Task: structure prediction
Amino acid sequence: MKRLRQTIRKVVLMIVGLLLLLIVFGAVSVTTQGNRWFSSAANTYLRDRKTAAIPGSILDRRGVVLASTDDEGRRTYHPDEKVRKACVHVVGDRENNVGFGAESFMANYLYGFNTPYIRQVVAMLRGEKLLGNHVMLSIDGEVSAKIANVFPQGKKGAVVVMNYQTGEIIALLSFPNFDPDNITYTIKNDPARPFWNNATRWLSAPGSTFKVVTLASTLRNMKGCQERLFKCTGVIDFKSNQMRDANQVVHGVITLRDAFKESCNVTFGNLALELGDRKLKRTAKAFGIGDHFLFSDLVVENSSYPKNARTNKQLAWTGVGQDALALTPMHMCMIASAVANDGVMMEPKLLLKAVDENGKVRADLEPHTVKKPLSKEEADIISDFMREAILSGTGMKANVPGQRICGKTGSAQVDGQAETNAWFIGFIDEESIPYAICVAVMDVGGGGLVAAPVAGEIFKILFDFQ
Result:
């Protein structure tokens, strides 16, 4: 009998444990994936609610209305076409062509799914449409339009601006964009895919901007690396090809700081070989490369690090941001943010708050740490290296005189393109102006020649924004 009671007790404890695990899993899933469920095309509950509710307005961080509903129940957007186009990949459109815009991804707030049940019942009994919550986003419509104006016309790419202390996204732009008030047949069939959000969903090798990660791995694993002298012969020979520096430059004997500043491929390719794949991959993992991010406010495609058991050629090219590396501009902005924020990577946030018809706050900004890939000491060293790159290196065209700008350029070779993709990541090293940025322009040439000047103009816009 005693043994039976013990068996029953174990079974009961096991069942209780499983129930607790189920509850925890459910809570985590709702927290991290709830918006995905609501925005899914298969969500019949959402389709039904759209006919029974008036969606709330979408506002930018200044309270400027970006989307609202008119008296006829039609969704309307900002009166300025430039603002509409600059914000469309964040706000969304009437037809949900933008898969994860606020119009669909934040439908749980906009259509009042969080409205108290008794109020929903009263509205139903009265035959009234339920009023959804107004959603205030972290982006700034005016700033976004100004940024769109300095991006190379007719080029594909993306820009992300993020508060590195809180994770608030100030601007998130994808090019080409489109006007949600004028979606034509041509737009719908454009091979450049204007509905696709390049900031969060385009995966590409990030070029030499990845040297920030290689540098972090070097600082962590090579004692005395800052005092050490490296030799750049201008080439690393492999059986099938060669790694060279831009414009066939030979740097000769060079320090780690100068190799980063000048973006020396030979030095960083050799650093990757000396580190080995395991150590470099471990550092990349610390920055979230290879992770499956589940953010509450937006969907970001998973970045990836090349598989194991690779050749020396592949490893060396990984060290300079090529090979099979694949990251989004959003993730690269997060990496820059981590360096700026003393090594702490914040979750990107788009929702500032959701407010019901009576002014009651139903949801609020909740800053959240994603990772801590760097120690403060490591972050400070990398910041200094990035500052040097702006003052006298490849990032000089991003400099703003009198301001402390830090950054790194990148030029990524992509099969099938005539030119390289131009990249820039950087930040304003000032606590009162805590903004990190990523600029990516496809098929245009070098990051120092194309992306850095764009970044410089964006930094000027951000100083005026303050």
About this structure: Confidence is low (pLDDT under 50) at residues 22-32. The longest strand covers residues 405-412. The chain is about 40% helix and 20% strand.
